[in-house]
Amino acid sequence: MLNYFLKGEKGTRLRFMGMLLSAILVLLSVFTLAQKGLNFGLDFTGGYLTEFTTSQSVELKELQSFIAKNHNGEFELTAQGNSHFQLREAPSASTISTTANSLDWQSAVTQNDDINAQVLSSAYIGSQVGDELFDQGCLAMFAAMIAVMIYLAVRFEWRLAVGSVVALVHDLILVLGLFSLLQIEFNLTVLASLLAIIGYSLNDSIIVGDRVRELLRVQSNNVLSPATIINNAIKSTLTRTLITSGTTLATVASVWLLAGAPLQGFAIALFTGIVVGTFSSICIAATLPELLGLSAKNYEVKVDAHTQTLLDMP
Known about the structure:
It is a single chain. This protein is α+β, with helices and mostly antiparallel strands. It has helices at about 1-5, 10-35, 40-45, 60-70, 95-110, 125-155, 160-180, 190-215, 225-260, 265-285, 290, 305-310; strands spanning about 40, 45-55, 75-80, 85-90, 115-125, 185. The chain has 12 helices and 6 strands. The strands form 2 sheets. It has a 4-stranded antiparallel sheet with strand order 3-4-2-5.
């Protein structure tokens, strides 16, 4: 069915429509990031992190409602198990106020007979540590992007390399835009997922680009147009791409649904990155080189006049 839509002008039209859709989504993501920003987690903003257990199983919503009555600031409660919980408190303007809030809710949950909680650990993460983690994480992502661009420049013709890099940037911006739009917490696990997305998206783009390069090299007589060659390359790799992406999505979806709140952000980012990465490898990585003038001539072997004379000799 998909191969039918990729035939001839219909396939080319769909690729260009997909590229236009990607451009619109990137603009919307950039606008959302500029307006709302990212909801940085405790790893970056700093604050108190407290872990505690309860003597019996307690519903998360009930426990959250009980703590809210004894807590005046912002907090986030997550369940690590049936009776194991983790509470994160955002830093307030006054350290004394934050400490008082922590003591109030901790006293309430430990003295309540129905909850009978026991505090396992309570630690304060300074904002300076969060800033360092964010800087180091961004530096790692930037270094990965530089390594990718160097690799692509060596392996491919520059038009295919540009298409792969643009597709990679597109994937990262869309994932960040989704996190900004939904205000999902952006923490270190999400930052790690962005590095994983770089590798996965690059893999898809390289497979399609490598197939395009192979087909262009055998078209020395220029019988087929670049658009037809690109469509044929996508068709020949589409089944493999869909199977690989499908199995990976199934694994990530299992992590999303079963691993709990600590890995939810990681799974959402990776799931989104795989979907948009598969899309961009077709609509951007393979289509942008065509707009930049990619053709079979770019892979013709050039010979000088003397060599050509020797080749023409009987």
